[in-house]
Specification:
The chain is an alpha+beta fold and 184 residues long. It has five helices and ten strands; from the N terminus they run βαβββααβαββαβββ.
């Protein structure tokens, strides 16, 4: 397990670093495979934030907590991660990403809503790129749930098309399958 600890807006402390590293090592009993763990410890005014991300087999789990004490923030964030790891232990063991060749890069643009209301030309205010990884629909739902996101763009491993899985307001999930039409 590779653990990296980063300090933001606070002085680095060896005791905090070793405390976080020792606590994170408890996840070994849930994760058999190699994992990369990023721990970010930050101070924001009078609050201490612990953000812990674990990446294994292409699956990312995240636990974040803020409180008035850094040690308790680390403990609570880690307990969130332990619950996730326990919940998905069997799925993580069975999960093996399907290799299609190369991942697909997806660009996500956010348009300024005021430009739409004023009948002006829409202006892109934020753009981000990420890799859409090949996975099954069930794996995509699990990954979206682990990340606590409302949607996830992925490459469907059976059809090799770009799909989007999203959380509906009624608590169920929806699937958007992008099909490329050929104008021959």
């Amino acid at each position: 397990m590779q653990v990296s600890v980063t300090f933001r807006k606070m002085e680095p402390s060896d005791s905090l670093k070793s405390y976080a590293t020792d606590k994170v090592m408890r996840l070994k009993k849930y994760i058999d495979a190699p994992a990369d763990v990023n721990v970010v410890l930050a101070k924001q005014k009078y609050r201490y934030i612990a953000d812990i991300k674990v990446m294994t087999h292409g699956i990312m789990m995240r636990g974040e907590e803020n409180s008035e004490d850094m040690y308790s923030s680390i403990d609570v964030a880690l307990s969130k991660l332990e619950r996730q790891a326990r919940k998905y232990k069997d799925k993580i063991r069975r999960y093996e990403p399907v290799k299609i060749g190369s991942d697909i890069m997806v660009t996500h643009n956010v348009v300024d809503h005021e430009s739409l209301e004023d009948d002006r030309e829409p202006k892109i205010i934020k753009s981000s790129e990420f890799q859409a990884k090949p996975m099954s629909v069930d794996e995509a739902v699990m990954q979206m749930d682990l990340l606590n996101n409302d949607f996830l763009v992925f490459v469907n491993s059976s059809t090799r098309d770009v799909n989007v899985v999203y959380r509906r307001q009624d608590g169920n999930f929806g699937l958007i399958e992008a099909m490329v039409s050929s104008d021959d």
